[in-house]
Amino acid sequence: MGYTRLLIDCGSSNETTTEDSDRITERWRTDEEFIKSGKNVLLADHNHAQNFIVNTLRSFPDGNKNCYKLPLMISGVHDDYNKYLVRAGFFYGNYDGLSRPPSFKLEIDGNLWANVTTSMSEEDPVYHELIYKLKKDQATVCLVRTSNDEVPFISSIEAAAFDGGSSMYRLKENKTALYLHSRINYGANKSVEKLIGRREERYERIWEPKEMSEYLNVTPEFINPHGSLLGENDPPFPEMATAIRAKNISDSII
Fold first, then answer.
1. Which tops the pLDDT comparison, 133 or 200?
2. Domains plus CATH for the chain?
3. What is the pTM of this model?
């Protein structure tokens, strides 16, 4: 069976069902059906009810390359409809007691995705995200050891199809992937959710809120709820409802 939406809580022994702000439920699966190697690890000092994916991870002390096989659905109508957002999360949490967050490589279908550098941060996981076009009904995500004394691990994997088909990220060439550098919600303060409900954000994209002291953070008095439809790649309405502008008309914001 192929999925158009697959959420994996790596290292967990139990499935979890969540509900977003729009009361839409999400099913986070264990990773046992997608990989046979590695070890489940429960982070004893972490028990986050809301961000539960940081509570467990799967580590790979053995072997130089360990791979997940993700069964994903592809369209036989047109390959422009086979674009997926694929995101991997890494939360070290000093699970091994060594206080040495490892570095390693992340691959997708045999191609380098990212050089992963984890950290001691107790905040959010380190994420690496791609817009990727499937060539077959399975994607392979691999953790690759680059040093004998650094053990790869992973906390979560997400894959979501773009149901907008060719209208989404249409400038992406067939032989390339788009690697996320940043996705910022300018003018929003830290209380704004990074991942909003699926009625507004259909594609699982995370939007980082950011106020900037050198500019004015503004909220328009009137917002056209259909205005975001004019934006390329379908930005969600709440993210279009905040902005920054220069303090003086002669100043640039670039």
1. 133
2. 5-179 (2.60.120.430), 182-254 (no CATH)
3. 0.87
